[in-house]
Amino acid sequence: MEVEPARRRPNMRLRLMNIMIVWVIVSGVIVLGSATMLVPAWRAAHGGGVTGTFTLTEAMSCDRWQPPRQRCGWFGDFRSADGRTVRHRLELADGLPPGARVGDTIAALDTGSSAQAYRLGDRDAWRSPAGFLGIGLIPLTIGLLVLQPWSWRARFRRARATGRWRTLADPLQ
User: Fold this and answer.
1) CB-based burial, 25-63: b 16+ in 10 Å, e otherwise
2) CB neighbour list of residue 148: distance below 8 Å, 6 or more residues apart
3) CA–CA separation, 112 vs 148, rounded Å?
4) What is the pLDDT of residues 62-116, one digit of tens each?
5) Which of 19, 22, 43, 58 could be joined to 48 by an S-S link, Cβ 3.0–4.6 Å?
6) Helices 127-147 and 12-45, interaxial angle, to 10°?
7) Taking the CB of residue 100, how many other CB atoms lie within 10 A of it?
8) How many angstroms separate the CA atoms of 173 and 161, rounded?
9) 48 vs 126: CA distance, rounded Å
10) The pTM is what?
11) DSSP annotation string for 98-131
């Protein structure tokens, strides 16, 4: 008669820790990405940056709202008022109402964003990245509070000193 070997129970602490580490990494990426988009958007909302014109070159899709709330995305080229700064293939932040056509120009700001130009006088440009920043900070904070990475070093030292070396799953105790 063959005896079935004992099955190892899954280590739930290790699973929880892995999930929380992924949670912290994903929310950290969201926080970093939204923070990098918030800085130029904040500058645009407060009139910072180089003024010029944005020439529409390529239409993107429109959002789900019905006119007049509907916005359609646009790519285009930014040219500063003095002609010194020319940037190609930027996205116009927050889009335009339907009806705009390729070749139309609008007054715009270049705040140094790697991907976007902003309409001149757009005071709400910062709200979307600030919302993503706030949404990303909540799971990041929860994940860090659960993982408590600030205590890992002391716990590992204590375990090594007492001769009870622990796995990475044990910092959750």
Assistant:
1) eebbebbeebeebbebbebbbeeebbebbbbbeebeeee
2) 171
3) 37
4) 777 777 667 788 899 999 999 998 999 999 988 887 778 899 999 999 998 989 9
5) 43
6) 150
7) 16
8) 18
9) 13
10) 0.72
11) TT--TT-EEEEEE-S-SSEEEETT-TTTTHHHHH
